[in-house]
Design goal:
Number of domains of chain B: 1
CATH superfamily of the largest domain in chain A: Cobalamin-binding domain
Largest interface: A-B, 12 and 7 residues
Number of helices of chain B: 10
CATH superfamily of chain B: Dihydropteroate synthase-like
CATH class of the largest domain in chain A: Alpha Beta
Strand content of chain B: 15-25%
Helix content of chain A: 40-55%
Strand content of chain A: 5-15%
Largest sheet of chain B: 8 strands, parallel, barrel
CATH topology of the largest domain in chain A: Rossmann fold
Strand order of the largest sheet of chain A: 2-1-3-4-5
Strand order of the largest sheet of chain B: 1-2-3-4-5-6-7-8
CATH architecture of the largest domain in chain A: 3-Layer(aba) Sandwich
Number of helices of chain A: 9
Number of strands of chain A: 5
Shape of chain B: globular
Structural class of chain B: alpha/beta
Radius of gyration of chain A: 18 Å
Distance between the termini of chain B: 19 Å
CATH architecture of chain B: Alpha-Beta Barrel
Oligomer: heterodimer
Number of domains of chain A: 2
Amino acid sequence: MSKDIIATIKENVIQGRKTQGDVGIDDSLAGTPGVVELLQQALKSNVSPQVIISEGLTAGMQVVGEKFSTKEYFIPDMLASAEAVGAAMDIMKPVLESANVETKGKFAIATVKGDIHDIGKNIVAILLKGAGYEVHDLGIDVPTEKVVEFVKEEKPGYLGLSALLTTTMTEMGVVIKALEENKLRSSVKVLIGGAAVSEEFAQEIGADAYCVNAFDAVKVLEGY
Amino acid sequence: MLVIGENINASNKSVAEAITKRDEGFLVNLAKAQTLSGADFIDVNAGGGYGSLQEATAAIKWLVGIIQAAVEQPLSIDSDSPEVIEAALKEYHGERLIINSVTAEPARLESIGPLVAERKAWVIALAMGTDGIPDRVEERLTACERIMSYLTGLGVKAEQVLFDPLVLPIAVDTRQGMVTLKTIEQIKLRYPEARVVMGLSNISYGLPKRKLVNRAFLLMAAYAGLDAVIVDPLDNKAMSLIKVADMLVGKDSSCRTYLRAHRKGNIVD
């Protein structure tokens, strides 16, 4: 029973069906309960939240990531899946807290100063949330001081910086320098991403990793 | 957007010939091909120019009979003659159907209206009265008002009505594109429950590169509120654009329909 329901949750994540009324990638699950309904059912039958996350939500998202990288899936497909996972995580949050389940770590994410692009940042945030991280979204056009202050106060293990423009990507280097000056650099892994940046640029400014896309970010984090 | 497949129309020479010869295979194939290409309704029009009403009704009855036996898609029964429509309806057993069409002309309203009410059919209502196609928005809306109040009196619901705002060639009068678009907007404002349907090809009459003009106008009409289109479903560029239009006006949640069609290789640019 619990195996079945988890497999069905996974299938619905792949289909991008948050609720029963949602239209999936194809018609194979049309009209059947979506992730939210199945999740409530699973929690009622005392299926372990960790198993739901790892074998249902995360396993489903991994398939979505593969399909996205082979261009079988497009951004709307991925967003629909990510939204389903995000909704599931919102429902599970109190359950996980009361069960004292530890998250995989604190992840702060921001689009750097001068840059207001947030689509990529939001996708990364939602995927990481689905993967079990405690995500703190600092927003767009975030001043360096604010990032530094957050790292100092909240001590996230990971910091994601996003920039779409070649004119704003240099801010990423400014943030890393500021972290060094405040003796915070070693406390946090810095991941960067966005259309303008590259592996070479990441090395040049001393970031820990460059992530090609949101799924790559999840993969990079699993490596730590 | 609802797609009404227009191909089985006797104004098409090959279709007229097939009807005259009672060439069932040709017409059934045409119905099946339209269904496969995504038509929601199949329009059937056996044309005019028959020697007698008997010949005309015999033709439409035969046509409706073979098409309804061949495809599951509901039909749109299309004729200028109320008698022909009435005969076709006797032959047609489907629960869903479109009657194409009624105008504000009293005699036509009085003959078609009761058929719509009786069959709980959908009906295409042309925004015109006795004096042909009005060239101004207000007059077209007056025709719509007449049709709606008459049909409402018969118990027909607004959801059953598909208003055709009508399209006059832009080549003849360059104001006509906006007249149609503004008529669509006003119909949607006044009768939110009713649908708006349009044929694609009139706008480009008399111009080169007609398909380009038709497609551009389709997108503008979609923005104005178009719900249904009478089109050749075998024209995959037009069918692609219909999906694009639905997506761009926010009628395609998560872009699902567009992306599904793309995965099947059905989106062409």
